[in-house]
Amino acid sequence: MRLWNVCLVILRRIVDALRDLAPIIIVIAFFQLVVLQQPFPNLGRVAVGLVCVIAGLTLFIQGLESGLFPLGEAIAQAFARKGSATALLAFAFCLGFGTTVAEPALIAVAAEAAEVAAEAGAIADDDEVRAAYAFELRMVVAVSVGTAIVLGVLRILKGWPIHRLIIGGYVLVTAMTAFAPAEIIGVAYDSGGVTTSTITVPLVTALGVGLATSIRGRNPMVDGFGLIAFASLTPMIFVLAYGMVN
Predict the structure, then answer these.
(1) CA 70 and chain centroid, separation
(2) 41: which DSSP letter?
(3) Is it the case that residue 234 has pLDDT exceeding 80?
(4) Is the pLDDT confidence value at 24 over 60?
(5) Which of 75, 194, 216, 238 could form a disulfide with 144, with the two C-beta atoms 3.0–4.6 Å apart?
(6) Contact 239, 246 (CB under 8 A)
(7) Contact at 8 Å (CB) between 215 and 118?
């Protein structure tokens, strides 16, 4: 009976994955066959890739619900019971830093930024210099996300209104944009988007919800969410500041 229930859950996940992917599949098929009027190149490989995507999405969603979400909530509740704000804030920073520093999208953006900076003459056109520039950029973004999670946790603990912090942050970004070097502005804005990875988002969201659930007087729907907004905002501030200083 248990095996049957597991099979039903997996089947339901596969159906959900197909439903989620259906719009993009329909759009691609329509434009390829109707608008471009061309057959799919390497149809066999495309079909195999689609099956892999469906399987990966199915396992990923199941893993989130079975492991990452409960883990994040359990850690938040354990810290709340422990009553150590210092330990909680240290964990929040390490979580944000650790999940960001190895983010593939950030590594790619930092490497591309180093290449463009070298071509523009902003840094020396040398492998070591480019690698150092990319590494520094990754560290700046990782520290910024760690700081963002700390700020988000403090907001939950103190009950600060999120809209004031977000509005103030974007006002600061706008003001800094006027003074930052033109070549760093686009990189700074992009860094805000590449930090919210598939691991960071569920863990951080679960941390916020679990913490808000554990603290008396906090509403998980009102106070538990918003950490990801800080994780998208602070990298822009930190990278703009990095460009202004260097």
Answers:
(1) 19
(2) T
(3) yes
(4) yes
(5) 238
(6) no
(7) no
- Note the Cα 139 to chain centre separation in Å: 15
Structure tokens at 28: 């691609």
Burial class (CB in 10 A: 0-12, 13-18, 19+), 158: exposed
Place of tokens 């706008």: 174
CA distances from 12 to 56, 59, 87 (A): 14, 12, 40
In angstroms, rounded to a whole number, what is the distance separating the alpha carbons of residues 72 and 201? 11
| 204 close to 149: Cβ distance less than 8 angstroms | yes
Q: Mean pLDDT, to the nearest integer, of 66-93?
A: 80
Burial degree of 30 (CB within 10 A; 0-12, 13-18, 19+) = exposed
With a CB cutoff of 8 Å and minimum separation 6, the contacts of 143 are 97, 238
Span 110-145, pLDDT tens digits = 888 888 888 877 788 788 888 998 999 999 999 999
Among candidate residues 136, 108, 71, the one with its CA nearest the CA of residue 193: 108
Q: How confident is the model at residue 167 (pLDDT cuts 50, 70, 90)?
A: very high
Token pair recorded at residue 68: 């990452």
CA distances from 239 to 106, 118, 162 (A): 13, 18, 22
Which is more confidently placed, 82 or 140?
140
**Token digits for 220?**
């998980």
- Determine the Cα–Cα distance for residues 220 and 69; give it in Å rounded to an integer: 14
